[in-house]
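queue> holo job accepted (XIL)
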Amino acid sequence: MPFGPYRGGGLALAAVAWLAACGGGADRGSSATGPIVPPVDTDTFPLRALAQQAGIRIGSAGDRGFRWTGSDGSSFRSILSREFSVLTPENDMKFDHLHPAPTTYYFAGADSLVAFAQQNQMVVRGHTLVWHQQLPRWITSGGFGADEAWQQLSDHIATVVSHFKGKVFAWDVVNEAFNDDGSLRSGYWFDHIGRSYIELAFRAARAADPNVALFYNDYNIEGIGPKSDSVYAMVKDFLVRGVPINGVGFQAHFTLNGLPSTLGANIARFAALGLKVHITELDVRVPVPSSNARLASQAQNYHDVVAACIQNKGCELVTTWGFTDKDSWVPSTFPGQGDALPWDSFFQRKPAYRSIYNALAGR
Ligand code: XIL
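queue> job finished
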C-alpha cells in the first residue's frame, strides 16, 4: 500500500530532525514529552511535517488552481506542495470528467494531478467512483434498464481503478448514498439497481486493485445520529459478510461552530470495527463578510477537527476541500457564506492555518 513511509523534502526533513531532537516522536497521543513548542515562528515547519510527527497526514483537494497562470499559479502550487502530503482531485476523477461518452475515457486531467502529487511526494485520494451527481447525460438520459446500469457501474470501476492502480492509495468508492434520515438516497444507481449497487461497487473496486484502500464517503455523518447510524450498520454488515471495505470518509463541510460534539466518539466507534476514518473534505464556512471574531471561531473549529483526528487512532488523515478562499465550492453553493479555508484569496495565512499548525504541533 502506497500509504507508506513519509518522504519529505529538505524543509520537511529539517523539521522532522528538529522535532525529533525536541523529543517529539511518532507515538501519537503520548504526553510524556509534552507538547511540541517550536522556538520562534509558528510557521517554521510545513504542516505535512508536523502532521507526520503527530501520526497523521494533512491534505488538500485541488482543482482550478492547477490551471492558474502567473503568480496565482505558482503560489497555488508552492503552498500545496509545501504544506500538504495528500492530494484529492476535487473534480477530475468524477464520472463525468473521466467517462464523457459510453466508450470514451479521458484520463489526461487526472493524470496531470497524479503526476504533480508524485513529483512532490504526495499520496492521492481517489474521489469518487460512484455518486448520484456529476454523471454525464449519456448515462442519465440514456433510458437504460437495471442490467445496463449494472454493466456501466462494473465497467467504469474496473477501468478507472485499473488505470490508477498503484497511483491512488484510497478510493471513495461510493459517495453520499444516504439521506439525512438514514434512508438510502434516490439517484441513478439506486433507482436502477437497488441497494446492492453499493456492495457491487466495493466488490468491483477490490477485484480491480487488491491493495487500494476502499472508503465509503458522506457528509453529515461526522457526529452520531440517524445518518451515521445507517452508515455504521451498513459497514458492519459488510465486514460480517466479507464485502471489502477499509474505511469511512467524513466529509466535514461544517458551518461556523457547527461541529458535532460526538465527532471523537463517532471516529472511535468506526475505528473499533477495524476501519480507518479519513476527514475528507474539511471546510468551515462563515457568513460573509466575515469578521475577525468569526475567523477566530473558525480557527477554533479547525483546531478541534485536527485534534480529534490526532487523538483517535483510527483517524489517518485530514484533507481540506481546497486551501485558498480563491477557489472554494462554498460561495457558489451556499449563498451568503464563504471564507471557508485556511488561506485567504490572496494566499495569506488565516487564523485557521495557525490553529491547524498548533493542533498538529500538539498545542
Ligand atoms: C464539489 C466541487 O467542490 C465543485 O467544484 C463541483 O462543482 C461540485 O462538487 N461533496 C463531495 C464533493 O463529495 O465531490 C463535492 O465537490 C462537494 C460535496
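queue> Residues 151 and 157 are 10 Å apart (CA to CA).
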